[in-house]
Amino acid sequence: MRLALLCAVLISTLSATGQEWPPLPPQDSPAELPAQEWPQRPGLRHFRVQVHYPGGSLAGVGPLTGIMLTLHNWGGSDCVGTTDPRVLAQRLNVVAVCVNYLQSGKADSIDAPEPYDFGYLQALDALRALWWVRDQLTTRGRPFADDRLFCCGGSGGGNVTLMANKLAPRTFACVVDMCGMKKLSDDIAFNLPGGSSLNARWSRDPRSRNFLTPDEQALRFVGHPGHLTTMKQLGTTSKVVVIHGTEDTVCPFADAVEMVDAMKSAGLAVEAKYVSKADLDAKVYRSAGHFFGTTEIVLAAAEKYLQPSGAEARHRPGPSDFQRREAIRYRTPGGEFVISYAAGFPVGHFDLSPLALYLDHANLLVVKDAQGNERPVKTKADWAERVAHIRAGMQQAMGPLPEAARRVPLDVETVAEERTEKYLRRKVRFTPERDDRVPAWLMIPNTVPAGGKAPAMLCLHQTTGIGKNEPAGLGGLKSLHYAHELAERGYVCLVPDYPSFGEYPYDFKKQGAHYASGSMKAIWNNLRAVDLLEALPQVDGGRLGVIGHSLGGHNALFTAVFDERLRAVVSSCGFTPFHDYYGGKVAGWTSDRYMPRIRDRYGNNADQVPFDFYEILGALAPRAFFSNSPVRDSNFDIGGVRKAFAKAGEIYALHNASAQLKLVTPDAPHDFPEMERKAAYAWLDEVLK
Questions:
Q1: pTM listed for this prediction
Q2: Which of 28, 77, 115, 182 could form a disulfide with 201 if both were Cys (CB 3.0 to 4.6 A apart)?
Q3: Phi then psi dihedrals of residue 672, to 5 deg
């Protein structure tokens, strides 16, 4: 679920650290620049720019020379579908830059399966190109007019132009939009009948890799009243020139009127030229419909603002966002988009709502609104709001849940298999995201008839070098062979290796660089493992559960909070509240395998961690939860476990599901004794069989 609560989308970022920025070319020519990662295709990314100087060479740049981006349409590339950069360079005395931004060209923008970005990363690409030119000129000591930064584009390029002005509101002196898309409306996003023929290929399904979250949709509305207010508060002075055909049905004229009116209401310097049939002159204005890439129109409507001098020539009065090195923040339903200029060039990401508002995580019977006002939890709907806050708090500590875009085909590969007396044990590998493969055991009972379906369990191992082999009954402690025992009882079982254990070598700092924690990486792998189970013909997708011990015990809890397909949860020796973990010494949770932010962001202070296990247990309600918590467990204090169960019981009672909450406390150390395992299996039979 891509942010789904909306969480996560985090939109994933790459700061370009370690990537080289090339020097400016001496004459008009292309260059390749480092870009921010695109979550749809994770990994390093570059984009191409075409640089055009006054006079065709860098030597033509002088003290009055500005910089102007000229951006192509949806489906265009480089300088095709743009205002002519050579004319702009000569006539306006600017370095004119065409940007082959994300999804340039028909293959990626129109024919590809991924949704069309619709301005966000595309604008970040354009802004990086602008930063690069001005940074190179500054580094070389070449005088230029840094207060003359401009951008223009038509259709898709108009959309990117408007978005670039939004993401860098104190940077441009003037921007010019011709028939650009003003918002990612439902008809464009989901290819619905409406005001546009465009299809951006997004999905409404939270489990789809193309899911459009309300946060992403809000950001892409360049006329968003709240965001325009933010721009005004930040001190934007850019002149926004909007040229739009009154009969445009590709990028609907009504959207242009809505955006312009909203900009005027917010106090922005916007000027609109609405082209009707009465304006057609066969020279400049040839259509009242959809047009773009028309040099004559840009010059006719805005040249007086784009020239180096003159009564109406535009010059930015203060420092640009590149120089200020501050962050731009836009609030959305589930958090805020942050565009950081700390490095000079922009890096964007999504932050979940700052919900470290719950100072007492044990008090589950309150919920807070966006202003921090507290009210009692009286209904299931109230609790659903609190659960969204719990998930947000977890992601503050663990990093965002990956976007649905990371849900690539599982590509399940059978490595080996063998039959035991009661089940088929198959070693498999599956793909949780690009460039990663998870080793796992898949165990299919012989009792599953042809065409029949059985309940299934995701089985998670403890901290052990042999990883998945222990639950599968292939080594380690016999008391932890729960996957083997469940398979013999008729459950389809999937037993993955946790990253860095068993046959799964994993470098959290390199391979997992886009994750803030090993915990979140494991959660994502487990969600994909549930996808795998759900897709098996032998599995009843309505009867899924998860079981784990120690590392696997809290891993099972974390996963279940984010995946409600898991109807039954068994945690053995998996948790105690943070204040009861070795007297509140939470440093044990901070390795790369777990949550380094507890150390780096929260100073190993249990008071500061933005979630706790009281909330996690409550978030499972009304689903069935069984905990084996031995009284002599030296890791997870039984006193804390009992306190957490008492608080979670309040939420289970709210759901009339008190019988679904089960705690056993054997007189044992950190282990899963036989009697308690058998009790857990019988309990699973009641819930899932």
A1: 0.64
A2: 115
A3: -125, 80
